[in-house]
Design a protein that fits this description.
This protein is mainly α and about 600 residues long. The protein has 20 helices and two strands. A two-stranded antiparallel ribbon has the order 1-2. Helix 4 crosses helix 9, helix 5 packs across helix 16 and helix 8 packs antiparallel against helix 15. It is globular and about 70 Å long. The N and C termini lie close together (about 10 Å).
Length: about 600
């Protein structure tokens, strides 16, 4: 394990004894906190770029959780978790909206584009997860590469994407459960609250109950949760195949090109053009959050070097095929402008003579798929928060692993309550836009990190500028491509010429970097193929998909990032400073290094 490329832990006990964890450190009293705030610029300068070594993440940092998570998962568990996590959330929540509002029948291509982007990102995740099998996912990967602040900002967005995604999926569960028992309108299952703003005035007690029930289940055991997920996912995949067959048998190919109301809506397979397809791809990217959850299970995998590549990449490929087939099936059942965005599949059979039973079966099956996706996502979000707690930037009690269940009970319970509170009030469209932008940002960061780690040698931070310059240039070219796509006039081939020039510049940038800058680090067990082309393509596609989102998404994302920055400055930087100065775990006991086997 090559861990020399990370900065050593800051400090020691020689000049930080006054800030020991046992004494409370920066938070021992108001006076101590005031002194800590006065030192904020110095502490940020010291801690923001401080990276940990991979070996340290897997020994000293992991020991802060107390008991170890049990290594009991194999590759088939990971594939099952990936299928359960992705399919339920993607098709049953976002397909209807992406089809109706953006892509039309071209949502099939939207899913293919989003799947390709997810697969490229999955390769980047896999290299990190095999080399450093800990539960922190992207947070840990960025912490050992770019340092604490980049990891914290990413970790905040990861928690955001999981909490908002789970809240969105739980509210969708209400719609499908109503369909399964013969209640068509989701509003009948929700309680209106006068006086609250639009989008926050429908109380959903069913969604809250589902989230709390799953929270209790995942606190019990990871292996048993995986077995339950495998059973539910097997039934769910059978249901998916049923959906696909029903769509192709009872659908009409005319619906792929003819809208229900031609006077109001354009026709064709791509009614809103290529821009609509890519806007749809950005929205359905929510569907692929599940594979990220699989990467957080690395600390509980028996043989990471073999099981993680199969589990992560394999689940993305299988799910992409299923998504495309299901999107085609739905598009054949109804014209795109007649699709119900709340419950697209069950709504397709509503009112059809002799087919009412199909709508009920679809509602029941969709509810089952949503349960599996919630279980996997909530398993993942708890492990992210657990590792963030280990790092010292959040309270240490979140990092504790229960010795009897070998699960992060504190993090699971805390996020379960937070997600339930959000699902109680917030509407689906508000949640989905926040999730998309958070997901794309995190995947973009991980793709940059895997390139940096390969090309910047151990301890050679002074020679990092060629790689940083390449990553900045590639992002700027991708941003230019995106701006041309959205803003340049389409007449006389102006936009086409500018897009071709940007694409050629991107290819030339990657080729020049590959020819001029040698790799400094070779992964021992598994590496991203086609370096640097694969992560470069992931960077480019993620920037492009980020550019497809609407302005309100960026406004909300900016507010959330600003809030995360405020938390870092007021709390996290001081907590991590105290933890590293004292060298103590969250309970006040000296942390000892432990051997780690991969």
């Amino acid at each position: 394990m090559d861990d020399k490329g990370a900065l050593p832990p800051s400090g020691g006990t020689g000049h930080g004894g006054a800030m020991s964890a046992g004494a409370g450190g920066s938070f021992a009293s108001l006076r101590a906190y005031g002194r800590a705030l006065a030192q904020t610029p110095r502490r940020v300068a010291r801690r923001a770029c401080a990276a940990t070594a991979p070996g340290e993440e897997m020994s000293r940092v992991r020991a802060r959780s107390g008991a170890h998570m049990a290594r009991a998962l194999r590759w088939w568990d990971l594939v099952g978790l990936g299928l359960g996590g992705m399919v339920g959330a993607g098709v049953f929540v976002t397909t209807g909206r992406a089809t109706r509002l953006y892509a039309g029948p071209g949502v099939v291509v939207s899913y293919a584009i989003a799947g390709l982007c997810a697969l490229l990102s999955a390769f980047c995740y896999t290299e990190f997860a095999v080399d450093m099998p800990v539960a922190g996912g992207a947070f840990s990967y960025l912490r050992v590469t770019f340092g604490e602040f980049a990891a914290f900002l990413t970790g905040a967005n990861l928690i955001m994407e999981y909490v908002f995604s789970n809240a969105a999926v739980a509210r969708s569960f209400t719609a499908y459960l109503g369909t399964a028992v013969g209640v068509d309108a989701p509003s009948k299952w929700r309680i209106p609250v006068p006086g609250l703003p639009e989008g926050f005035n429908q109380v959903d007690l069913v969604a809250v109950g589902v989230i709390l029930l799953i929270s209790v289940c995942i606190c019990y055991s990871t292996k048993e949760s995986s077995l339950v997920n495998m059973v539910l996912t097997a039934v769910h995949v059978a249901f998916i195949l049923f959906i696909i067959v029903i769509g192709f048998v009872h659908g009409d190919a005319r619906n792929l090109t003819h809208p229900a109301d031609p006077s109001q809506n354009p026709g064709g397979f791509f009614p809103h053009g290529a821009m609509g397809v890519f806007n749809g791809a950005a929205m359905v990217y929510l569907s692929y959050i599940g594979y990220d959850a699989v990467s957080t299970m690395a600390e509980e995998v028996e043989r990471p070097a073999r099981d993680i590549p199969i589990g992560v990449s394999g689940s993305v490929v299988v799910v992409t095929v299923l998504y495309c087939l299901m999107a085609a099936s739905m598009s054949m059942l109804l014209p795109y402008d007649a699709i119900d965005p709340e419950a697209p599949f069950s709504g397709a059979f509503r009112g059809r003579k002799g087919m009412a039973w199909v709508s009920n079966v679809i509602g029941a099956g969709a509810s089952l798929g949503i349960l599996t996706s919630l279980m996997v996502a909530m398993l993942g979000q708890a492990r992210y928060l657990c590792v963030i707690g280990r790092s010292g930037v959040m309270p240490a009690w979140l990092a504790r692993v229960n010795p009897r269940t070998a699960t992060p009970v504190n993090a699971s319970a805390f996020l379960g309550l937070f997600t339930a509170a959000l699902a109680l009030f917030t509407e689906l469209d508000i949640l989905l836009n926040l999730v998309c932008i958070g997901t794309l940002f995190v995947f973009y960061m991980v793709a940059n990190a895997v390139v940096y780690r390969r090309y910047v040698g151990a301890g050679e931070f002074g020679r990092a500028w060629p790689t940083l310059a390449f990553l900045a240039a590639l992002s700027l070219v991708a941003l230019s491509f995106t701006l041309v796509w959205k803003l340049a006039p389409a007449e006389r081939g102006v936009r086409t010429g500018l897009l071709a020039a940007c694409a050629a510049l991107a290819v030339a940038t990657v080729a020049a970097f590959q020819a001029l800058v040698p790799q400094a680090h070779a992964p021992e067990l598994w590496g991203v193929p086609g370096m640097p082309w694969v992560p470069a393509a992931s960077v480019f596609l993620n920037v492009f998909l980020l550019g497809s989102l609407d302005r309100p998404s960026y406004v909300r994302f900016g507010f959330f990032s600003a809030a995360a920055l405020l938390v870092y400055v007021l709390y996290s930087v001081h907590a991590s400073y105290d933890a590293e100065e004292s060298g103590l775990d969250g309970a006040g006991a000296k942390v000892q290094d432990e051997a780690c086997t991969v």
